[in-house]
Predict the structure of Iron transporter.
Amino acid sequence: MPRRSAALLTVLALALTGCGARVADDPAGAGTAGRETAGGRPGHRPVTVENCGVRKTYDHPPRRVVTNDVGITEIMFALGLADRMAGYVMPDDKGRVDAVPWKAAYGRVPWLSKKTLTRELALDARADLVFAGWNYGFGEDNGLTPASLEKLGIDTYVLTESCRHGADGGARGVMPPLEALYTDLTNLGKIFGVEDRAAALVKRYRRQIAEAADRAAAHRPSVFLYDDGRDKPLTAGRYAGPHDIITKAGGVNAMADLKDSWTTVGWETVVERDPDVIVINDYGDTSAAQKKAFLLSYPPLAHVSAIKHRRIHVMDYAELVESPRNPAAVGALARYLRGVRAGG
């Protein structure tokens, strides 16, 4: 029997026995996690959390989690849950992990694919939960959604930064980006029975960010986040990680009025808002050096303050998406912005 078929029969059998998460009919079960470890010792009670506006109940701590992308993977690592993972999916260009605190975890957990997350991959890994996000693995266009996985008996958890809002469901973001990080840490702490560990992380990250904010410059330069794109730049609205990182670091997000996370704008908008600083998101086939060369040579930007004064700061992708690297990123950007005079 092909491996995929065998895996499919296994997960369907598990689904028939009532394994996994369910949409909660009764919210009274919220916050009922015991103090067990992630191994789910006898006595662990079902846990209900709210994820992207949906209340879901997890009957036991997952044991074979598949994650998509670097930030999501490192949330699991930061919570000490590497032993609960069946593997992760992450392209090479987002895999700069040699100097991170979780290097050893990356060495232990299988790197399942450097391409895209698929239902087949989750089945082959015998996943009991997939932790991904909208446009971070989940999407109707690729047929991978929480609903499609749950039909196969595989539970899901959706990255809060990626939660969708609005009538058409296209825009993403339902809360400030750093609150999204704290929400996911807290929810996952309950799901895996490691609430104390999650609470300690949230407390430490809040303190780290507050300390960086206290040292931020008072002049608050405006900052434009440049992800990529030539015809139209991809940037960060008020619900993407860079918004809170810029704000807590003492800057002003030039695109704060965009009620979305990662989205495109026109170059004319960038010119009109005349940012003091441009932050480059370093990832992808186009290097940070190539992105910088383009910005400095693109004629419409010639009179923008950041270009005239060559104030271009490079940050890593994993610092800018929702991840445990966000607090340190606030401190790093705050140090850079202290040397920038707004409007000068």
